Every structure is written in C-alpha cells, then in structure tokens.
Predict the structure.
Amino acid sequence: MHTIISTRILLAAGGAALALPVAAQAAQVTRPPLTLPSLAPTPAAPAQPQVASPILTPTIALPRLTDAQATQLATLLEADVTGQGLAALPPTPVTGADSTRLIRQALDHARAVHAGRLETVDFQEDWGLRPPAYDPLPSFVAAVRSDRIAAWFASLPPPYAGYDGLKAGLARYRAIAASGGWGTLAAGPDMNIGTSGARVIALRKRLAVEDRDTSVSGDSYDVGLVDAVRRAQRRYGLNPSGIVSTQTLAALNVPAASRVRQIMANMERWRWLPQQMPANRIQVNIAAAVLTLFDGDRPIQSMRAVTGRPGDETPMLSSTIHSIVINPPWNVPTSIATRELWPKEKRNPGYLKRAGFKVIDGTRLQQQAGDQSALGRFKFDFVNPYSVYLHDTPSRAKFASFDRLASHGCVRLEKPAELAETLLSGDPYDWDGKLAAKIEARTARQAQVAQTLAAR
C-alpha cells in the first residue's frame, strides 16, 4: 500500500517534466502576521554610521596538472564538446603546455554541460525551472588531486536516461547527416494500405535510413510498412495512425541536419532541469500531456492530461501541492472572461447564467460548482506565480485524442478522483468512503495534503 498525503509536482516540456515534490511536513494554510502601527511613535535616536565589514570570498587556486593529466584533459575535452551537443565540430586543440588555458576551457565546458549555456535573464517567462549557479572548480580540483579527471567529466551531464538517449541519438543522426541524410519524398495523396508505386518505394528507402527494421523491397504499402510508419510517427511525436498524411510527410522531409540541431537544443533543455528529482512526486510531461505519480522514484499511477495550447502554454515549474479543493468554484481569469466569455454573452444573452456564472463586485466572473463547472469536482492547488493548477473537467472528449494541447495553461486530469484518493489516503480525517459524499454535497471543501509516507 502506498500512503501519500502530500506531493511535490514538476511540470516540464517533453523530456523536461513539471514535477512537484511531496511535502515533508503537513501543509497548513498560513496567513502573514498582522502588524499594527504605533499610535505615537517615539522618534528614534539617529543611528551611528556603520562601516560594513568587507566580505572575503575564499579563492581556490587552479590546480597544477601533470603532463599525463593535461593530455588526458585535452583528449576528453575535444571529444566531449561534440559528444554533449555543445558544438558541431571539435574545438581547436589546446596543448598541454598551456595548462591554464586548458583548465579554464574545461571549466567553461563543465558549466555548459552541467547547467546549460543560457543566462538566467534570457529564459522565457513561462520557464520557471532555472538551473542554479554552478561552480565546477572545487570538484575539478578534487578530481585532479585524486587523479579522477575522467570520472569528473562523466559526472557533469544531467543524470537522466532521456538525456543519455538524446546523446546516443545525436551521434547516430550526425552519422546519417554525414552520409548524405535522406531524400525528399514527393507530395501526393495520403499513402496507406493498398497504395503502390514509385512513392511507396521511395518511402521504404526513406524510412530505412532511420529504421533498420524497415524492408526496402517491394512497391506496395503492406502491414510491415504500416508498422514502420507508426514507429516513425512515434519518433516525431505524431499520432501513430500508420497513414502517411501531409503532416507525416512534412516530418519525414525534415533534413537530417535539422534533426541534429533539434537534438542539440533538447539536450540543452535537459540541462536546465534539477539535477535530482524528488523521490515522491507528480510529474507532468507537458508535450506528451501525461501525468505520472511516483512513490520512491517508482511510477505507481499514470493518466492522460490536457495541457496548454499554443499561445497559452503550461509553464515549466516545480512546487508542492498543499491542498485539494472538492467542488471548487472557478474564479475566471480576466483574460478569459474578456476574450471568450463576455463575447459569448453578447452573442447569446443569458449564456453566463445558464452556464452557472455569476458576477462578483460588478466585474469578476465566478462559475459555481456543479456539473457544468470547468474545474469539475477536484482542484489541486500548489504555490506558483502563474496561477495554474491541476483540475478535473466535465469535457472528457479530448482525453481520447492524441493531441491534447488544448487548455488555457492549467492541467486537466483524466482521473482526478483516483489521484485525490491516493493523495488523501493517509489523512487523519480518513477520507476513505467520505470523498463521494463530499462530492455529492456540492459544497466546496478544502482538504489539506500532508506528509508522504511510502510503504513498499
């Protein structure tokens, strides 16, 4: 049995996930202390000027390299710059005789591999996962002293299988590009079972460049070719229909050199993630629109989600779920009210009332809990500057779609009741058997999410 009372959540794109860690203490709703001004403040005596003590930052001297270490460092650096996707070509070799320059080049490389090359101020506003500052010098000095430079290099990249897969893919696609890549497939009608001719022959050859299991013989679109097309569609994040439509054709015609650049860009995004994920967490893959609940780093629950559409992208962030609201009202953001709801009311007078909305303070819209509520029966709250949350939805059709980028930025859940029951299973209130009753009561109720206890 897995007892999870509070969970850390991580939201991220593609390989990068939106993850929220499970809180170690019972989360309580706290208010800032109330401070009352003094009625008759006594003038304070003028403060004596103080001279700030200088802050001395201890410096670490660059280590001395042996000739063997300098040669090893130069060799590792030359291979790793291209292997880690930091450059298309190896850097100009630095001789071991210029050890200071070599060390500084290695330290710059370490920062880029470990935390990425993008400055914090250059991140997009909705990318809340920013890598912390990283100083590689202390660990490098220790590696030189213990003569473990190769192990130091190996410790720099993100410790994730997704990154390792991209690194292997980078080497493979570079080799494909160096061999001439692949040809462009001619436009034409969709290809499917029953199609035959020169376009099918060209399709087989094109797929075989990336997929060795694709047969290049034959001019008919058979079951084996359907499977090969589906594998390609999964590689490109497309609906694996097995039909070569306009969208699939466009993906197949992206040059190999462009795929290399895409892989390099995605490796950089992996470097922006935390070096260690919380063992107990909810992780949302925004691009794939899938939520996974981890207990002790082991996935125990997964479900489809609906994430932000283009223009309303779900932000990348890490936070902690502190409470679940049952039968939540929806306080409509001003942007959605102005852009969507008020125009609907203008076109169809009475729409807002029929849909359960009411006007608060003459300006704000709120939708009451009920069968029509956009938030459904559950809302999972966590602190973040983007005003996003996880929630239920009465609109279920999108969960059956492959492309589920359709929300205003929040994350809609396929199975919110299951997630709520798991998160509340160890709550002192004993929600077992009471959750359904609270839902049917149709009144808002906030349940605190507490400490995580995992029993295997």
Q: What stands out?
A: The chain has 13 helices and 16 strands. The CA atoms of residues 328 and 377 lie 6 Å apart. The chain has three domains: 2-22+278-329+369-454, 67-161, 182-254. The chain has a mean pLDDT of 82.
